[in-house]
Amino acid sequence: MTDMHHGNVAVIGAAETTGLGVLPELSMIQLHADAARNALADAGLTVADIDGIATGGPMPMEVSHYLGITPAWVDSTMVGGCSFMLHVRHAAAAIASGAATTVLITHGESGRSRVGMSRYAVRAPDTVSGQFEVPYGAMMPFATFTVPALRFLHERGMSRTDLAEVVVAQREWAAGNPRAFRRKPVTVDEVLNDSPPVAYPFTRDMCCVVTDGGGALVLTSAERAADLPGGSRAVYLLGSGEAAGSPVMSQMAEVDSFAGFRSSSAAAFRSAGLTPDDIDHLMCYDAFAHVPLFMLEDMGFVGRGESGAFIASGATRPGGSLPMNTNGGGLAYTHTGMYSMFAMQEAIRQLRGEAAVQVPGIRTSFVQGVGMYFAASASLIFASERP
Amino acid sequence: MPTPDTLPFWEAARDERLAIQQCRSCSRYYFYPRDHCPHCSSGDVAWRDVSGSGRLISYVINYRPLPPADPEQPQVIALVQLDEGPRMLTNIVGSPADPDFLPLDAPVTVGFEPRGDWKLPVFRLAGEQ
Q1: Which of A135, A199, A248 comes nearest B60 by C-beta?
Q2: How do A73-75 and A52-55 pair as beta strands?
Q3: d(CA A77, CA A378)
Q4: How many helices (H) and strands (E) does chain B have?
Q5: Looking at domain A9-117+209-383, does it have CATH number 3.40.50.2300?
Q6: CA distance A119 to A101
Q7: What value of ipTM does the predicted structure carry?
Q8: Which residues from chain A sit within 8 angstroms of residue B32, using beta carbons?
Q9: pTM to 2 decimal places
Q10: Where are the domains of chain A?
Q11: A201 vs B contacts (CB less than 8 Å)
Q12: Greatest CA separation found in chain A?
């Protein structure tokens, strides 16, 4: 048994679906399969090499059998959008302990076209959420995940301008990314005043895009990775954390900070033996513009109340000190419904030096995820080299 | 759709009473309904009619409500904190769906709206009809 962190487990294959955005010709399971086959090809492996499967959405055997895999290790952890990050963490533990050798993690979602998705409805009327949130209209993410934002801004003397700055910064990255769904640069004034209001204080530009697509990862031990065709492009897991909180928004321990972000990011830093100063690149799961603001503060990259000024300073933009959401993020690149797979893919591309808008010299990347609004959190630290 | 653990909440609401649970061991109130206290795990808990007074913590004004809500009427989806401590998600009714009329920390009071065979607790700014 080895330690699951400190670079002992490697991402040996990583890919997104061939297409991304509007894909009505593909069902949810086809998106899983396309991403999986692309990731296996990226790794130089075949389905015969895979002995572990993890996915969220469909049951794992729906994906493994569809692909022709007979797994001996299965993980169906489902906590919403960051599920695939928990799969990485669980796969690392399995590989380190010998429970699995080579694990395939898949995501596919026909989030825009809704092809092959009908069985995956949540928030049934007899759940806690179905009884105490849905009757108030808190169904769609834009009218639910967004509810704590005003309090966050109010407590800090911040404003809607701080939400708009997040959008502006990320569009700068998206402008250079041909796969990004929204590529047009925008100004704060345009985000506030020209973009249609969706759910005050949010305009449409402050809400994620809605797309079809998927992605997949192949993980194995760093020792085995060194002997594989893609070994020179392997990316290593240095540290990780996960957390779960309340399934309903009203029961967050605090409204303007998420305990899950604090604890899982602290666990990731602790297990990696790193601090925020050691991080070259950051992916903050941005379903809505307030989420990166919460994350930057809860993770300790900035102090309380400093997130807005940090973004506005240009620190997260091209050329800034902490490049963040460099694919354009969920706000501009893509968002199928469960975005974390794409955040990890961008971190891996940056560490491999293969991103559409590549930042020079990225050696460490922190990916911070969120699930089921402020209900679950996952934190992963990847590196380009094994320490 | 009530479940056995939540039925007393919905039966009280149908009588236009706001009832939540209080732990007899640690004295704290909690929400959503459960047969044990989430603070201290005691199973010695009781239903209490509460004041229905609280304050407005946060909200969005949803311009795209889904049925059964009227899609033409912006909907205020809010967090309120009851004077007894617990927070609830709710709607603010009786005020314009306009941030100028919805200051954070404003006092709110409970009201009830019919929903089929049941009634739904909602809140309005204190002093509004």
Answers
A1: A199
A2: parallel
A3: 12
A4: 1, 8
A5: no
A6: 32
A7: 0.96
A8: 128, 131-132, 248, 250-251
A9: 0.97
A10: 9-117+209-383
A11: 60, 99
A12: 57
- β-pair type (A281-284, B19-23): unpaired
**Contacts (Cβ under 8 Å, ≥6 apart) of B122:** A136, B90, B91, B92, B93, B110, B111, B112, B113
Residue B14 makes CB contacts below 8 A (sequence gap 6+) with: B117, B118, B119
- Averages of pLDDT over runs of 10 residues in chain B (129 residues) are 95 98 98 97 98 98 92 96 98 97 98 95 88
Question: Which site among B9, B32, B87, B88 would you substitute to test the A interface, given the most A Cβ atoms closer than 10 Å to its Cβ?
Answer: B32
Q: What is d(CA B68, CA A78) in angstroms, rounded to the nearest whole number?
A: 29
What are the chain B neighbours of A137 within 8 Å (beta carbons)? 62, 65-66, 69, 75, 77, 91
Helix (H) or strand (E) holding A224: helix A222-225
- Please write the tens of the pLDDT for every residue from A140-161: 999 999 999 999 999 999 999 9
Residue type at position A247: P
Give backbone dihedrals phi and psi of B112, rounded to 5 degrees, phi first: -135, 135
**Residue of A169, A199, A218, A246 lying closest to A39 (CA atoms):** A218
Domain ranges of chain B: 7-125
Contacts of residue B7, defined as CB under 8 A and 6 or more positions apart, other chains included, come to none
Chain A interface includes B6 (CB < 8 A): yes
Query: Between A1 and A273, where is the model more confident?
Result: A273
Q: Are A295 and A259 in contact (CB under 8 A)?
A: no
